[in-house]
Amino acid sequence: LISFDQGGPPVWSVGMVDVAGPTPYTLLVTYGFSHALSPESFREGVTHEYSLAVPKGLPLSPWADAFLRHQTRYILTQGADIRVNDCIPLRGVPMTRVPFQPEHHAMMPNSELIGVLCAEDPVLPTVHTPHGAVVIRRLLGIDGLELDRAETWSPAGLIETFKTVNPLLLSDIGRTSFMKNPAFAAAVNARAEDEGSSMDAALFDVAWSLDDAGRVRVELPVGQAAKRLL
Q: What does the mean pLDDT of the chain come to?
């Protein structure tokens, strides 16, 4: 394989391991995103890899490892980062379909998870290697209602609340929104009301037009987007 800056892959591989226990799942971890594992100059200062955990029995191939590769490619291409407590909207596209071109979407599993939170990996936070410590950051799929709350309250707060019902931070592509659980929603909304928002920006669809009299008409969002804007 050749280096990413020469046209190679963003990571050398994505490891998968089945984890037993009361809640069995498959853990996926990138290999070769960090500078410790890929000592290339453009990765200098990159001390982390990314993980994803999917409940056992749900389809993994080809979307799960492709999702991690897609995110790492985006980071390296854009010179960005996905940090702990970041929130990434996927613009309405399920995380199972994001890595693929639209013509292939129908072949991938459907899901309501259209956003991602980044947290410290709850079971594998740091791996110590002969070349230094590598931090593992967990990517967690969230649905539209949860994404709205993350963007109008706090990704860190939502991750903290998630751990009370999903301590392993599993991305269950078939689940319904935790915000439809009255107890979970009440806890989240109470903290949001008390703490306010920690987000510095949010995206909305806004349109404007000019009429014959020279007046500007501005059209604001409706429905759930209006509630977010408010």
A: 94
Provide φ and ψ at 192, rounded to 5°.
-60, -40
C-alpha–C-alpha distance, residues 230 and 141, integer Å? 25
Q: Are strands 132-143 and 48-55 parallel, antiparallel or unpaired?
A: parallel
- Rounded Cα distance, 166 and 174, in Å: 14
* 105-164 per-position pLDDT tens digit: 999 999 999 999 999 999 999 999 998 999 999 999 999 999 989 988 999 999 999 999
Beta pairing, strands 216-219 & 25-31:
unpaired
**Two structure tokens written together for 60:** 């993994």
Supply the pTM of this predicted model: 0.89
For residues 139 and 7, give the distance between their C-alpha atoms in angstroms, rounded to a whole number: 25
CA–CA gap between residue 72 and residue 94 (Å, rounded): 17
Strands (E), the chain: 13-19, 25-31, 48-55, 87-89, 113-120, 126-129, 132-143, 207-210, 216-219
